[in-house]
Structure formats: structure tokens, C-alpha cells
Design goal:
Helix content: 55-70%
Number of helices: 12
Number of domains: 1
Shape: elongated
Number of strands: 4
Radius of gyration: 23 Å
Distance between the termini: 39 Å
Largest sheet: 4 strands, mixed
Strand order of the largest sheet: 1-3-4-2
């Protein structure tokens, strides 16, 4: 499960090119609504609720993991189980802190602070959005990920990460559209469930890796010391197999939750596109989409399960929907 992104990078995410009659160089002054629109205020989109299916799907593996972590505290410290589980779950709140996101999440995501030149480009693209919609600049944290893909993504409630190639290649207007789309994920509260799910996944993955490590030790010890003792040899192999199965089931739970989260996130992409239009940067976003489509390799059509569980809808479909929304909104003006 990845953060909410403008596009997907890699061959599997490329989309076929398509034209919609709106030039890529069209300026951002072609807007839909008055300069100050309701899209600037944080408001829960119904599509954001679909992301909580990931949290529900993660509960079995997370409860097993949390229970194992609680065992020493409960046995030797008389810590109440329900209190421990509730407190452990509530720690995800710290991930919404801007200092934590700046100093922890950025490193986990492999991001960095923008260079002076990149900061100038990001500011030039961000300032019109801020002025037009009365947003506070300090409310969001911008960072750069070094990659050759045209991409950007939002996570953690405040973070907006833009690829270095996007900063270099996209025009200021196109970059404004991309940033407006990512801000729309935050304003629609799409990243809330994602952040909670990431926190829940962390101990599950750590426990699964620990189980795999202990399995390898159990197998090695069994083969080294218990070869001549059939009962002990069988017991060692049973322990190793048990640890392998438990670790595999935990990771299977995480994988299924990720697939559900990816499927649910497709709806949020359409909502973020439309909210970016309400912010006044619909045409700029459309131009950025067309730019991405012009340089992306042609999509290799996957099987039905790959399409069902893809994290993003096809780029052409997004372009068609956004263009139709822009035309309909223009007709109502």
C-alpha cells in the first residue's frame, strides 16, 4: 500500500495516450469557480471512508502481534490487556505531527529537503494555490524524492512529496496542478486511514521478519545438534515449520489488506482531481496528466486481478473524467 500518488511509476502504471481537446499549455486562469472555494477546507470525502477497509482487514494480524508484545508486560508488569492495546493503537497520533513527519517519515520514505532551486520552483507553483484558497504555507511539508519518474504523492496528513524529475520537467502551471491534486488528498482526509494502516503494519512486519529469523535458527540448530535424536529432530522441525506458517500468514494478511487499500484508493483519485478543479487548478492538473501520458511507456494490459487491485485508475480514464467535469462546470458558469 503506497501513499496517495499523482501517478504510478514503472511499467505497470503507464497509461495509453489520449487527447481530450484541451491543450497542455492551457494556463491556469481558466477556472471553475470563484477565487475562494469550499475545496480549501478539510472535509471528509466519502471515498476516504473506503480506506478504512484496510484497517479492518489488518486487525487480525495486528491483534495477534500486539498480544504477543503484551505478554511480557501482562505477565511481569500486570498491565491490563485492553489498556495496552488501546494505548499502542493510539500512538499513531504522533505520526500526524509535522516534526515527526519531517524528521522520521521523510527518512523512511527516502525523501529529502528541496535544494534552493527546487524550493524556488515549488514555491512558485505553491504560492498561487495558497493565495487563491487562503491556505497556510506552514500547514504542509514539502519534500523531494530523487527519481526519474513524473510523480508526486501525499501522506501523513501534511507531507507532499514531489519527484525531482517532476520539478525539473513540469512547467510552473503543471506543477501547480499536481500540487493541488496532492493537497486535495489532505483536504479530503484521504491520508488519515493510510497513516493509521502504516502504523498498524509496522509491528506486524517486524514480528514476521523475527519469525523468519527464528525459523532459520531453529532449522540450523535442529540439523546441527538433533540429527541423532529423532524426537528432538522432529520437534525442531515442527517449531521451524510453525514459525514459518505464522510468519507467512501474517504477511498474507498484510498483502491482502494492501490490495484492498489499493482498490479503495482509486475512488480517492477521482475525488482529488475534482477537488483540485474546485481549488482553481483543474486545467493545470489536466495539462500535467497529458504531459505524463506523453512520456510514459504504453500500458501493458494486466489480468483482471491486477486491474481490480490496482492502486490508481488508468490515466486516460482520469483525464476523461476530469475533462468532462471541467466542461460541465464551465457550462454551469
Amino acid at each position: 500500500m503506497s501513499p496517495y500518488a499523482f501517478t504510478r511509476s514503472g511499467p505497470s502504471s503507464s497509461e495509453p495516450a489520449g487527447g481530450l481537446g484541451i491543450a497542455a499549455s492551457q494556463p491556469t486562469q481558466a477556472t471553475l469557480v470563484s477565487p475562494f472555494v469550499s475545496g480549501r477546507s478539510p472535509r471528509l470525502d466519502w471515498s476516504a471512508l473506503t480506506g478504512f477497509t484496510t484497517i479492518v482487514a489488518l486487525l487480525p494480524a495486528w491483534l495477534v502481534t500486539t498480544s504477543l508484545i503484551w505478554l511480557p508486560f501482562g505477565r511481569f508488569g500486570a498491565v491490563d490487556y485492553r489498556l495496552f492495546v488501546g494505548a499502542f493503537f493510539s500512538l499513531f497520533i504522533v505520526l500526524f505531527s509535522r516534526p515527526v513527519q519531517r524528521f522520521v517519515l521523510l527518512r523512511l520514505l527516502g525523501a529529502r529537503e528541496p535544494t534552493r532551486r527546487e524550493r524556488e520552483s515549488l514555491d512558485a507553483a505553491w504560492q498561487p494555490i495558497m493565495r487563491r484558497n487562503m491556505l497556510e504555507q506552514r500547514r504542509f511539508v514539502f519534500a523531494v524524492v530523487d527519481t526519474d519518474a513524473l510523480n508526486a504523492f501525499a501522506c501523513g496528513g501534511h507531507l507532499v512529496l514531489v519527484s525531482s524529475h517532476s520539478v525539473e520537467r513540469l512547467s510552473t502551471e503543471q506543477l501547480s496542478g499536481v500540487i493541488a491534486h496532492e493537497l486535495s488528498h489532505h483536504l479530503g482526509l484521504h491520508t488519515v486511514s493510510l497513516t493509521i494502516a502504516q502504523w498498524m503494519i509496522l509491528p506486524v512486519v517486524l514480528l514476521s521478519r523475527a519469525g523468519m529469523w527464528l525459523r532459520a535458527i531453529a532449522e540450523s540448530a535442529t540439523h546441527a545438534f538433533a540429527r541423532r535424536l529423532p524426537l528432538l529432530h522432529a520437534l525442531g522441525l515442527f517449531v521451524a515449520a510453525f514459525l514459518h506458517v505464522v510468519s507467512w500468514l501474517l504477511m498474507l494478511n498484510v498483502s491482502l489488506a494492501n490490495m484492498l487499500g489499493n482498490a479503495a484508493s482509486r475512488a480517492t483519485e477521482f475525488h482529488a482531481d475534482r477537488r483540485a478543479a474546485r481549488l482553481g487548478f483543474g486545467h493545470a492538473l489536466l495539462a500535467a496528466m497529458r504531459e505524463w501520458e506523453s512520456v510514459a511507456p504504453r500500458e501493458v494490459r494486466g489480468n483482471v486481478w491486477q486491474r481490480v487491485f490496482a492502486s490508481h485508475p488508468p490515466m486516460r480514464l482520469r483525464i476523461n473524467n476530469l475533462a468532462a467535469h471541467l466542461r460541465a462546470s464551465g457550462a454551469r458558469r
